[in-house]
Amino acid sequence: MSVDEKRTVGVVGVGWVGLVTAACFAELGHPVIARDLLQDKVDSLSRGEITIHEPGLAELVEKNRERLRFTTDMDELLEGAQVIFVCVDTPPTYSGDADLSRVRSVIAEMPAESDHILVMKSTVPSGTGETIRRELPGIAYVSCPEFLKEGSAVEDFLHPDRVVVGAAPEHAEAGDIVSALYEPLGGEIVRTDVSSAEMIKLASNAYLATRISFINEIANVCEEVGADVGEVARGMGLDSRIGPHFLRPGIGYGGSCFPKDVSALKLLAGNSGYHFQLLNSVIEVNELQKRRVVSKLSKHLGTLVGKRVALLGLAFKPETDDMREASSLVLSARLRGEGAEVVAYDPVAMDAARNLLPGVELTDTVMAALDNADAAVLVTEWPEFLDIDWIEARSRMVHPLVIDGRNYLDAEILRKAGFAYEGIGRPGVGTETE
To answer: Which one of 24, 87, 222, 257 is the catalytic residue?
Structure first.
């Protein structure tokens, strides 16, 4: 397959990863058939309507509607496309292992023998591909894990750091075909075996999560010794061996990937007979970090019983409405457990959050959330929070206290507006509230 050749691509599962994959391949000029089990979703997508908040995605779907076909019929997809990307969810089970039931359902619908190429985009434990290859010996299998970040997924797909393509020697031609689909994007294509490709995804996310937990631990020590973690991280990041990425302290990582993949790798190691002690600490630090905000609030306000705390941001990160493993879930529950009244605002995640935050008052504007609040906690670093009129906010709040869980706000602006301010691993400013 040459770079200019256009091949019909099949996508199974039109959630966040699947829809981005389908839209981006269509943008590259390939006809795409995307299949989902939900008829309502297929009908909406066929009309060009999407409910996922991902910058640039709606525009890409609309632009390429003539090349995008959505269906619930697996046979229609198999008849129309040779290369089938599996993009179904693999959420954690109660044990922490990856739930592969959706992957198993796709495998059950594949013919025992055909010229199809089954490409696993879903995150699966290392060894899954070998199991599938034994079950479907007549179909070429390729592992091609996704490395998309919510909030920049379209950009990540179209301008990748690397594309990992794992295939057994006997399926090298299938690996060539998948690689050719990505060649126009210019990222380095890493050709490897299936198990290594699967491990690259888990290891990458586990390492990034480790960096986050590490800098959060450093931030906590900085608070004890009077250092500024921002300066510490900057000095560390200038070392070419370390680099600046993922050295921003906060109230912990969340989302659909890091918590799931770190736990999955820890359990994969344990099931293989190896105790991955480092990942135990990474997970523990992340969970404790979310609760440190409560201690900061108590330091200023004393008892939290009856206090009104405003959460600014609910999604696990900006530019998405994803609430999976969001720090706001733990924080709101912990605050309510301490007897606080919790009110919250997020620019895009309100609908997603509504059923996940029982007892939390959701407001339509940030100022409504700050009305009569005893404290504000910045949870998600949405750009609009940089434009808050803190002088007006001061007039609305009972106590002028801000806990910046992402070190995002300008401490000096808050000080001038009369606020007591605390970040993560940074010296506080202002005076203790009464």
So the answer is: 257
